[in-house]
């Protein structure tokens, strides 16, 4: 109610200002361009600004006005516009609700230490954030996020030496900081032993570090979601 009253007050003030500006401009034109503007044109100009000012001032109250004999119903137009906007909001939410599970349909088979599905998820999540519909899709986001966390955690098994499945909870996973601390030369050598494509320990360690960074991005999202109010 207070918002409506304050909005009405602002409209009134703005409407009055528009009307005054019209009158001042009309007088200025009449005085300095007396030969170029007639009295009737001055009156028409002032009346035009006054009408516009009144429409602005009472925009929330005006239900209908006429242009060249055609009736324009402001309230109906406003309600229709609001309905369309609401429908679009629902449509985009449902679109992302369908897109999220599709992320898990992608292949995770790769020699790289980063689950390729993570990039798709992060891109979709960024769009969801920009549209401010995280709360509406929280359940779907958390489901996909949990699967990706477990899978990415599994790709770093050489570091933590613990197998996890989707049955495990988030609290049972190591933090990214813990994984960074645990990553030593011995783990890198062990990693290279089971991954023959690596000939350089620096490259092997770099890939493991990249894997932890990818895991850290998912981990950070999970922490933020947990802080949201239900």
Q: Summarize the biggest pleated sheet.
A: 2 strands, antiparallel
Domain unit count: 2
Helix-strand string: HHEEHHHHHHH
Strand content: under 5%
Count the E strands. Answer: 2
Radius of gyration based on Cα positions: 32 Å
Description:
- The longest helix is centred in the N-terminal third of the chain and has 31 residues, at 2-32.
- It is elongated and about 95 Å long.
- It is built from 9 helices and 2 strands, in the order ααββααααααα.
- With 230 residues, it is mainly alpha-helical.
- The protein has 2 domains: 2-62; 85-227, no CATH class.
- It has a two-stranded antiparallel sheet with strand order 1-2.
- 17% of the residues are buried.
- The mean pLDDT is 79.
- The chain has helices at residues 2-32, 39-57, 74-103, 117-130, 138-154, 157-160, 176-182, 185-194, 201-227; strands at 64-67, 70-73.
- Helix content is 69%, strand content 3%.
Q: Main attributes?
A:
two-stranded antiparallel sheet; mainly alpha; single chain; 230 residues; 9 helices
């Amino acid at each position: 109610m207070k918002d409506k009253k304050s909005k009405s007050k602002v409209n009134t003030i703005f409407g009055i200002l528009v009307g005054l500006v019209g009158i001042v401009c009309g007088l200025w034109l009449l005085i300095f361009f007396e030969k170029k503007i007639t009295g009737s044109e001055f009156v028409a100009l002032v009346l035009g600004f006054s009408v516009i000012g009144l429409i602005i001032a009472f925009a929330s109250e005006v239900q209908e006005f006429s242009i060249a004999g055609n009736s324009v119903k402001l309230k109906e137009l406003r309600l229709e516009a609001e309905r369309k906007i609401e429908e679009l909001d629902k449509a985009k939410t449902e679109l992302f609700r369908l897109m999220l599970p599709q992320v898990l349909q992608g292949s995770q088979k790769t020699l790289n230490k980063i689950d390729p599905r993570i990039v798709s998820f992060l891109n979709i999540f960024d769009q969801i954030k920009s549209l401010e519909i995280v709360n509406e899709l929280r359940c779907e986001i958390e489901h996909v996020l949990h699967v990706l966390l477990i899978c990415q955690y599994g790709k770093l098994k050489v570091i933590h030496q613990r197998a996890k499945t989707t049955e495990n909870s988030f609290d049972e996973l190591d933090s990214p900081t813990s994984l960074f601390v645990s990553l030593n030369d011995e783990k890198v050598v062990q990693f290279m032993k089971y991954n023959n494509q690596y000939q350089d320990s620096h490259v092997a360690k770099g890939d493991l570090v990249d894997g932890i960074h990818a895991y850290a991005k998912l981990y950070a999202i999970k922490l933020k979601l947990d802080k949201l109010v239900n």
